[in-house]
Amino acid sequence: MTDPSSQPFACQRKPVTEWDTSEVAVWLICTFGHDGTALARFRSTTGSALVAMDASHLTGKEMGFSHAQAKLILERIAFTVQVSSVEDAAIEMDKLKAEKRTLEEELMTLKHLEELVDKIETLKLEKQVIQDEVDEHNRAEELAAEMMKIKLEKQAVEEELEALKEQKTENVVAIQSSAQLRQDEPHVGKRHYKEDAYQKNRYF
Predict the structure, then answer these.
(1) What sign for the dihedral angle of Cα 75, 80, 86, 89?
(2) d(CA 53, CA 93)
(3) Local confidence band at 204 (pLDDT 50, 70, 90 cut-offs)
(4) First vs last Cα of the chain: how many Å apart?
(5) Rounded to whole angstroms, how far apart are CA atoms 115 and 110?
(6) Residue 139 to residues 20, 39, 59, 145, 153, Cα–Cα distance (Å)
(7) Which of 41, 47, 55, 68 is most exposed, with minimal Cβ within 10 Å?
(8) What number of CA atoms fall less than 13 Å from residue 36's CA on the CB side?
(9) Which domains does the chain have, with CATH numbers?
């Protein structure tokens, strides 16, 4: 029998208790070499039966190993179980690491989505601010247009008043001129009748 620590136990990749008879045979070859006697004695042994063996079973009539051989076999079974457990733990650790990486990636995705949502909310707020500014600008333009309209209407009224004032002034000047003319020529526009003495001094 050879040193178990130098043998390729990695040839077995699942728990010892789940081995079938062929996998136990592979373990025997990896552990003890091509020992025909050992292979023959373990030919119908499964992994669960291998782990359950004790010294009395190994030294009994069916197996026929000496006490020294039985002790060595049990030591190597224990070593194999330990190695298998370490490998199982390593596999489980790899699975946990993979799950952790997946969770971290999902977390990063969620964080990215949260950042996108925050950016969208920020853009909405900025859009609202811009819309408010546009509305304010439009209101200012409407107010300016309304003020210009009022100014034009006021200007038209002022021009109309000015025209009326000028017309009134012209009328006053005309009236004054007419009155002055009458004062300067009192008989202008009057008719003198001489037909009879009664109407001698009558004027129209």
Answers:
(1) negative
(2) 30
(3) very low
(4) 170
(5) 9
(6) 88, 99, 105, 10, 21
(7) 68
(8) 0
(9) 4-94 (1.10.150.50)
Per the listing, tokens 């002790």 go with: 71
Q: What letter would DSSP give residue 192? A: B
d(CA 126, CA 65) in angstroms, rounded, equals 87
Q: What is the mean pLDDT of residues 32-48?
A: 80
Q: What is the pLDDT of residues 112-142, one digit of tens each?
A: 888 888 889 999 999 999 999 888 888 888 8
The one-letter amino acid at 10:
A
pLDDT at 87: 65
pTM of the complete model: 0.40
Q: Which residue from 39, 35, 4, 36 is spatially nearest to 25, judged by alpha carbons?
A: 39
Separation CA 80–CA 14 (nearest Å): 11
Alpha carbon distance 20, 44 (integer Å): 9
Residue 3 has pLDDT above 50, yes or no: no
Question: In 158-197, which positions are buried (b, 16+ CB within 10 angstroms) versus exposed (e)?
Answer: eeeeeeeeeeeeeeeeeeeeeeeeeeeeeeeeeeeeeeee
Place of tokens 């009224």: 157
